[in-house]
Amino acid sequence: MLTKRLNARVVRLSALWLVGFAAVGVAGFALTLSTFTNNNRSTIHDQTAAPVVAPHVRRVVLSSLDELVAASDLVVVGTVVGVEPGRVAGDPADGEAGQVQFHDAVIRVDDVLAGSTARDSIRVEVFFLPNSPPGSMTDIASAWWRRGASSVFFVRWDATAPGREAVLPSYDGVYHLPSGVDGPARSAGTAPIAGLEGRTVEEIRAAIRALASD
Q1: How far apart are the first and last CA of the chain?
Q2: Is residue 178 a contact partner of residue 105, using CB atoms and an 8 Å limit?
Q3: Cα dihedral sign for 165, 171, 175, 178?
Q4: Spatial CA neighbour of 134 closest among 61, 188, 191, 192
Q5: What was the pLDDT predicted at 158?
Q6: Residue 95: what pLDDT?
Q7: Are 145 and 158 in contact (CB under 8 A)?
Q8: Alpha-carbon distance 125 to 49, whole Å?
């Protein structure tokens, strides 16, 4: 009889121990999952708050001609005279590997579509990456950066860094004219704007004037 009672007590204690162990395990899993989730959310938030982009353009992708014109101080039809080494940024203590070499695209002003300038040429700061996809904005071999290439340039004056004169306000701030000023414009960026893509210079001029009259 005593043996049966002892056995029954052992069974009850074992059951309680298993329930307690399971509860601790569930709580530990929940805490680990919560920590992982919070850390993951923090990482996603940080990546969203600080996107990595090429330094020569602003962190914005504009979706309409109206927005692009509003973000620009000057819209010109220009011809590339050359691409030259520009300012160097970075901490000299980091050595050559820590330096960032910018370039200046020297653009001859052929026609002003919006804004005003008395300059014959402007220097637009650009940044090239060594392994850029061919034909991208950061590929120095792209057709629109070649000497003699004509494009419509949307430009913002920006002298906030030593040696800098102007920048592109958006990734879609250059519309190449592969067939000349009488041919259709082609976006050099990744998100062509409908009011510009495939338009001639005169059509773009008319569209900009229409915005001014609204």
Answers
A1: 100
A2: no
A3: positive
A4: 188
A5: 93
A6: 74
A7: no
A8: 25
Give the integer Cα–Cα distance in Å for 49 and 51.
Answer: 6
pLDDT attached to residue 52: 32
Which amino acid, 134? P
**Is the overall model pTM greater than 0.85, yes or no?**
no
Neighbours of 90 (CB within 10 A): 13
Instruction: Name the nearest CA neighbour of 125 among 88, 92, 98.
Output: 88
Count of CB atoms situated within 10 Å of the CB of 126:
22
pLDDT reported for residue 198: 93
Give CA–CA dist 55/106, Å, rounded. 18
How far apart are alpha carbons 190 and 209 in whole angstroms? 25
Q: Which helix (H) or strand (E) holds 74?
A: strand 74-89
Per the CB < 8 A criterion, the answer to whether 155 and 75 are in contact is yes
Question: 181: which 2 tokens?
Answer: 């000023």
* Parts of the chain with a pLDDT under 50: 1-59
Cα-Cα-Cα-Cα torsion 85, 113, 54, 66, nearest 10 degrees, comes to 170
Alpha-carbon span 65 to 71, nearest angstrom = 10
pLDDT at 177: 96
At 213 the pLDDT is 77
pLDDT of 66: 92
Single out the residue of 114, 116, 73, 111 nearest to residue 211, CA to CA. 114
